[in-house]
Amino acid sequence: MLKYFMSQQFDAEVVIIGGGPAGSTCGSLVKKYLPEARVLIVEREKFPRDHVGESQLPQISAVLAEIGVWDKVEAANFPVKIGATYRWGQTDQLWDFEFLDRGNFIDAPRPGKFEGQRLETAFQVDRSVYDKILLDHAAEMGCEVREQVQVIKVEREGDRVVGLVVREGGVEKRITGKHYVDASGHAGILRRSMGVETDSPTTLQNIAIWDYWQNAEWAVSIGVGGTRVQVLSLGYGWIWFIPLGPTRTSIGLIVPASYYKEHGKSPKELYEEAISNDPIVRDLIKNAESENLLTTTKDWSFLADRLVGENWFLAGESAGFADPILAAGMTLAHRGARDVAYTIVALERGDHEAKWLRERYDESHRRHISQHIRFADFWYTHNGLFNDLKGFTQEIAGGAGLDMSADQAWRWFGTGGFIDPDTSAVDIGAYALFATKNVTASFTNSKIDYEIFGKSNFELDIKGSELVQGARLEDGRIHRHDCYRRAGKSLPLIGACDWIVKTLATPKTARQIVGAADQYRRSGALDEMQALSFPRYVIEAMEAMVLDGWVKAEKRPGEDGWPNFTIDYTRFIHPNQDVALRQVD
C-alpha cells in the first residue's frame, strides 16, 4: 500500500478542510489505522478560538477514547456532564434527564480514567480549549496541520476534486490529494463548490444569541466536577446554561427568526431581556460578569442532498445540522467524521467494494442527521411554538415518506420504532426507545405503553423485503452483516433483533418467547452485563419490530399475553430534586 501511495503525485492521500472536531477526528483515525498515509489538515483560523456547541453526549467519549485523546480532554478539567435539566412546555416543572442510573455520580478524584461511570458520562467543553487539544493531538498522530490557510478555490472535473487553491501567508498555492474531506462547518466549502443542494426538512428557523460569563454559579454541583446543563423554556424560545470550567459559563438564547423580526429588538436587547427575566438564570449570574462577546448566528436545521462524490466526503456541519435542543451537533460531527475515516481506510485497504462503501456512509449518516432533526422538531411541538401539533407532526411524517393521517403521524412520531441497520441497539436518533417513549408520555400527558404488552401470539413477517448489508465499525474495520430492508425500514440480523428473528422461525406465543429469552440469558453465551440487560433489549427490539411491521402481534382468547413488566423510567427521567433550583423565585 505504501508503495502505491508513493507512486501517486499527491501532496497528501487525505486532504481535510477544517481543523475543528470533525476534521481532527477524521485525521487522527486515518493516521491510527493507516499510519503510512499522508494526512493534511488545512484550517482557516489560528487556534484557540471560541466556538458554540459545548454540550456533549456520552457517545463522544468513546470516540475520544478510540482516538487516544480522552485523557488529554479529561486533564483539561472540563465539567463532567451527567445529564440535563429541562423546563419545557407551559409549566415551571423542571425535569432531569440522567446519563447515570438515578443520577448517582460517585465522588472520585480527577483526572479520572475512561472506565466505570465515566463510560456513561460526557463533557461540557470550552471549545477554544477543546478544539485545540484535538487539533494538536491530530498533529501528534502524524497529520500535517496548517493553520491560517484559506481555501479560495476548489478545482474540479465533473464530480471529482482535482485540487485546492489556498492562500497561505498572502501567497496562493495549489494542494492535491487522493481523498478530500469537507469539515469546514457551515461554510461547506466543498459542498457548495460541488453544487450539492441542501434541504431544510423542518419548519423551525431559529437564531442563536450567546455570550460567555465569568464566575456564574453552577446550577448544580455533583461530586467532583459533575453537573447538568440547564435548558429553560421561555415559551417563545429557550435559554441554555452550560458551565465550561471552574469560572467560565456559556449562556445562550434560541428564538424563532420570525419572533426576532416581529419584535424589532436588537440581539443584545433580546438576550439581556431573556436572561434578566428568567429567575433561575438571573440568580445564577447575580455575581457574574459578561465577557461582552455577544455573537449571533442562524440556527436552521438542514441536510445535504448527498455526502459523497467520486473522491470527496462531507463531515461535520458541512453535511447537515440538527437544532441544538438535544445537544446532537457535536455527536454527529464526531461520529460522522469517524465514519468517513473508516470509509477511507477501507477504500485504501480494498476491504469492500468502493461503491458500497460510499453509498453506505451517505445513507447511514444522512439517516442519523435526519432522525435528530425530526426528534428535535417533536420536542418543539410541546413548547407552544406550533398551533396544530398533530398537523405539524403529519408534515414531519410526510417528509419521511409516510402517508399518514394526523392522528397516525402523532402516534408514529411519539413511539418511533426506528431500527438502525448498522447497530444492534434500538433507538431514535441515538436516543433509546424506552427514553423516547418516556419523553412522549411526559409531553402528551399519557401513559407509557408498549404494543407488545398483553399480546399473546407473534409471527415474523419479512415478506416483500430484500436482503442487504448493514455495517458495524470497530477497531479500524467495517464489518458487514445481513439486514432485511423493506419500505425504507431495516432489520439488522445482529443482537437482539437477530435473536428474535431466529426465535420466530416459527410463530411463538408470548410465554414461549419469554421462556426462551430467560433460557438464553442463563446459557452462558452472554457476559455478565449483557445477561443483565438482555431482557430489556428483547422488549425494546420486539416492540420496535412490531411497530415497524416486522412482527405481527395479536391477542388470542385463552392465551397468556406478554407480561406488562414494570420498567422504572424514573431512573433516568424524573422531576428535578435540586432544592436550590426549586427554591428560586
Task: Provide an overview of this structure.
The protein is of the alpha+beta class and 585 residues long. It folds into 3 domains: 2-51 and 124-199 and 303-361, 3-Layer(bba) Sandwich (FAD/NAD(P)-binding domain), CATH 3.50.50; 79-116 and 205-299, D-Amino Acid Oxidase, Chain A, domain 2, CATH 3.30.9.100; 417-570, 2-Layer Sandwich (Enolase-like, domain 1), CATH 3.30.390. Helices cover 35% and strands 25% of the residues. The strands form 7 sheets. Strands 3, 4, 5, 12, 13, 14, 15, 16, 17 and 29 form a 10-stranded mixed β-sheet that branches. Strands 6-2-1-10-19 form a 5-stranded parallel β-sheet. α2 (21-33) runs parallel beside α10, α10 runs antiparallel to α11 and α12 (389-399) crosses α13. The protein is globular.
Nutshell version of this structure?
This protein is α+β, with helices and mostly antiparallel strands and 585 residues long.
